[in-house]
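Q: Give me the 3D complex with flavin-adenine dinucleotide.
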Amino acid sequence: MNERELVVVGGGPAGMAAVLAARASGVTDILLLERDQYLGGILNQCVHPGFGLVHFGEVLTGPEYADRFIRSVCESPEVEVSTGSFVAELKPGKILTYLKPGEIQTVKARALIMATGCRERTREMIQIPGTRPAGVFSAGLAQKMINIEGLLPGTKVVIVGSGDIGLIMARRFMLEGARVEAVVEIQRHPTGLLRNVVQCLDDFGIPLYLGHRVCRIHGRDRVEGVDMVPVDEVGREMVESRFSLACDTVLVSVGLIPENELIEMAGVEMNRQTNTPISSDLNYTSIPGLFVCGNAFRVYDIVDSVTRDSALAGRQAAAYLSAGGGALGNV
Ligand SMILES: Cc1cc2nc3c(=O)[nH]c(=O)nc-3n(C[C@H](O)[C@H](O)[C@H](O)COP(=O)(O)OP(=O)(O)OC[C@H]3O[C@@H](n4cnc5c(N)ncnc54)[C@H](O)[C@@H]3O)c2cc1C
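A: Here is the predicted complex, encoded as structure tokens.
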């Protein structure tokens, strides 16, 4: 079986920062596996500015931020980058199986860093009743459709959730000529940054309904509207104040779930509530030499913090290797 000193899974900002820090700490045999065709992770679809203020002291877009790391990773002879490589299995002993077009590969890692990011919570997870028409999207999917595929998912939009991703998508839809009828937040305060509330909603005159929830989606083939209702301090619906809004699209932006099914498969002790590893310290798991970093370890607000903490994972893996960890008979 092919054996590598360090394998990193996920070529987003976390994986790339970990790779570069491990290399700078003396690791000379690194395999980076990324399921997409390109490195950069979620940053590739984030064309808005707001990245890099801490790390670079500049305001960059997501692709610009990613590009600075991609160049360094790809220029390193110590790093083999394998894109189009989906890791499907992780066995105890840090044995990974990954699929590439036309081939299945197995590799054993002496040290392993998982930087697999997050997936989005869905309509089903927050239980919005109603019909199941076309036109209900997660915010990240809509962002990918607009910014990467050049498709506009709808023209009259209601956004569920006031986190940063929902707010940024509200502005994005308006810039594309669509109308955002409402951003709806069950809590009594917006959950995203104040600057995003001002720049993405207030500047475009988009109504923000705090203390409200979308309680039904209507539509046969395509979304035709939603019902909304105010909720009191303990979350009870004030049904007498229920009202409807016409729309053709509902965007669900209600949080992220760390993507950690692979480490669970390998036997890592998990916190079931957060879907993250139970950990004594940043990036550590219950399996020596298996580290988790970036959004897979915890959901971060800004990418600069992901870069900082994931570079630490690279150094932690290097220290593990230089102490003889993961050598044969010491898995
Ligand atoms: C829609 C959106 C907007 C954002 N806007 C901002 C902003 O304005 N400013 C800011 O600072 N931060 C923003 N963030 C946050 C920031 O982008 C994230 O914190 C950061 O991208 C997390 O990096 P990561 O590498 O952990 O995850 P990701 O960027 O998600 O990368 C994970 C990578 O792992 C790969 N992967 C997953 N599973 C596998 C597998 N089994 N096999 C192989 N590869 C795999 C994925 O394809 C992906 O490339 C935003 C995030 C999102 C989702």
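A quick observation: The chain has a mean pLDDT of 96.
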